[in-house]
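Section 5: illustrative case.
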């Protein structure tokens, strides 16, 4: 006798699809973990927003201490460039007048995600395929893979440094803090490394 043995996986498929559609993946800098350890008055999420869209910052008048290192013969080390306080042996104070700092927009989030679109879409497709097979774990893994792909794409985009060049005054300020990098958005790497993904229920 000929016949067919069938297996009804409709419930599993519906369950997997439902689980998939009830989750979303967000990429960026979560405010809850955006703190900086450099004494900055703003966190990485706020800084990322400012750099992405640009803005104007009002700086009040203040006294600024700059540090240099003097060689044994009395000459300045490194041509007189600023150094970190811990390695300096010469400090001077300067009065800085109140002024405004205009930061041009350097979009990094959306362009970064767009740069990784192929891998992100592939991961989402794998998750959807798993859901259509009733594989809830596989669907969840697809979302995770998409989040990781987006996170890495944005970090890579930031690290490439293909943005409007920094102003000479900004570069000088970086050197005064002991950082020689001339890449926009990448001084210590704190902002770039704070970019991550989060999976959450809708």
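Designed sequence:
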């Amino acid at each position: 006798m000929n016949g067919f043995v069938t297996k009804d996986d409709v419930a599993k498929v519906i369950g997997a699809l439902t689980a998939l559609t009830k989750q979303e993946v967000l990429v960026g800098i979560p405010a809850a973990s955006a703190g900086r350890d450099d004494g900055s008055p703003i966190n990485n999420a706020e800084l990322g927003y400012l750099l992405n869209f640009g803005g104007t910052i009002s700086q009040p008048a203040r006294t600024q201490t700059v540090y240099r290192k003097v060689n044994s013969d009395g000459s300045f080390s490194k041509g007189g460039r600023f150094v970190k306080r811990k390695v300096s042996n010469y400090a001077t104070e300067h009065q800085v007048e109140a002024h405004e700092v205009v930061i041009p927009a350097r979009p990094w989030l959306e362009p970064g995600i767009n740069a990784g679109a192929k891998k992100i879409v592939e991961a989402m497709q794998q998750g959807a395929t798993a859901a259509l097979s009733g594989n809830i774990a596989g669907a969840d893994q697809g979302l995770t893979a998409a989040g990781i792909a987006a996170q890495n794409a944005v970090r890579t985009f930031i690290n490439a440094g293909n943005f409007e060049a920094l102003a000479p005054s900004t570069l000088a300020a970086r050197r005064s803090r002991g950082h020689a990098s001339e890449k926009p958005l990448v001084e210590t790497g704190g902002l770039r490394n704070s970019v991550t993904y989060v999976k959450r229920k809708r």
